Amino acid sequence: MKIVYNHYAADEIIPVQEYIRNRKLIKYCSRETAAALVAAACLLKDITFSPLMPFYYETGIMESEDLGLELIADNSSDSPGKFSPQNFVEKGIKAVPPLTQFKALYNIPLSIVAIEHGLKGDNAVIYASASGLLIQALHAPADNEILLGCGKILADKSVVSGFALVKKEEIKNSPFLKSPLEAFELFKEWQRGNH
């Protein structure tokens, strides 16, 4: 098992420019996506892998990043403060720049990493579940290595990101298969050497 786990403080610059070949993708990056690109690049450096390698990514609620969602909600209400589908289409979604909308999608880290590394195999985004990530990997349609990733923007505005190349036999008895924790906790344990 090969693992990369990074933690960036709220004021720390994530050096994504140093780890990405297709610089046009940077405009789609939230801090979580930038951290995922760095971790994936570090993990996959000097490794030969199949573009069909399965790739699963766990993410959770962005606890602190402001993507303008409050602005969308405010502009999507009618006069009594109730949600209006018409106002959402006409005003709400237009209240933030279009690129910001991409940053709020849960599958953007997985998508950008897959594009950057040419990954075309089975993939899925798992929401807030270490056990779900591992179960998905155990059911991957391949017996070779599987790429697992996770990321999260925490309440203190720091960012965590973990990536690992695993084989099914390495995770089939993991205590995290029955854990309610998010995957970044799993990657912290793996980084400490607790497989």
Describe it for me?
This protein has 195 residues and is an alpha/beta fold. 35% of the residues lie in helices and 17% in strands. It contains 8 helices and 5 strands; from the N terminus they run βαβααααβαββαα. A 5-stranded mixed beta sheet has the order 1-5-4-2-3, with helices on both faces. β4 (146-153) and β5 form a beta hairpin. α1 (31-44) runs parallel beside α5 (108-117) and α2 (69-75) packs across α3 (85-92). The longest helix has 14 residues, at 31-44. The radius of gyration is 18 Å and the shape is globular. The mean pLDDT is 88.
Short description:
It contains eight helices and five strands, in the order βαβααααβαββαα. It has 195 residues and is an alpha/beta fold.
Through-space gap between termini: 9 Å
Q: How many helices does DSSP assign?
A: 8
Supply the helix-strand structural class. Answer: alpha/beta
Major beta sheet summary: 5 strands, mixed
Give me the side-by-side strand order of the main sheet. 1-5-4-2-3
Oligomeric state of the chains in view: single chain
- Percent of residues in beta strands: 15-25%
Average pLDDT taken over every residue? 88
Number of strands: 5
Query: What's the alpha carbon Rg, rounded to whole Å?
Result: 18 Å
Shape: globular
Q: Uncertain spans, ≥5 residues at pLDDT below 50?
A: none
Order of helices and strands: EHEHHHHEHEEHH
| Helicity level | 25-40%
